[in-house]
Amino acid sequence: MNNELSKSERTRRFILEKTADIFNTKGYAGTSLADLTEATGLTKGSIYGNFANKEDVALAAFDHNLSVVIQAVQERMQQAPTYYQKLFVYSQFYYDSIRTSFPVGGCPILNTAIEADDTNSLLKNRAAKAILSWKKNIVDLIKAGVASGEFRTDVDPDQTALSIIALIEGGIMIARVTNSLTSLDKVLKTVEMLLVQLKV
């Protein structure tokens, strides 16, 4: 079976790899066609021959950036032996990522959610879907931890999951706006305290 990508698929991947950081840094509104052609070295026709329009590229770029984050988190999580440590991976990842500028431009969920708001329903829906998927992953980990006897049985998985996400994303936003990593560190300490309270 031939698993090689077609020329069109290779071109799409190339465009995404060259433009994903730009969209994540400058946002949809701030990214121009000139940015895309300069980054890729391709013409407008070549780009729009592979994507319907700039919004289509932006949506694919969001998916690309999100997949990079998810893969990095999953790789760390696979090394964590307990459910507490698996949940703590989220805190560790964002602690490290904001210091190493990974991915470039910061958290794609936060960036897209803030920019899209009510001005771009497709990007807003993409960010919402990502948050709900993240919430489900956390809820599943908490429920597995409860079932294994690692976490308390009176834990509210939904409330805890939403609190973890809100703290992490809120902490990133505060740190970026105030240029203070100390703010994020303090918020992530609160996440850690929340996780400790899950234990039996």
From TrEMBL:
Q: Which residues form the HTH tetR-type domain?
A: 9-69
For whether the record's keyword set contains Chaperone, the answer is no
Keyword field: DNA-binding, Transcription, Transcription regulation
**MF annotations from Gene Ontology:** DNA binding
Q: Which PROSITE patterns match?
A: HTH_TETR_2
Which InterPro entries does UniProt cross-reference here? Answer: Homeodomain-like_sf, HTH_TetR, Tet_transcr_reg_TetR-rel_C_sf, TetR_C
Keyword DNA-binding annotated: yes
Q: Where DNA binds (residue ranges)?
A: 32-51
What is this protein identified as? Transcriptional regulator, TetR family
What species is this protein from?
Answer: Spirosoma endophyticum
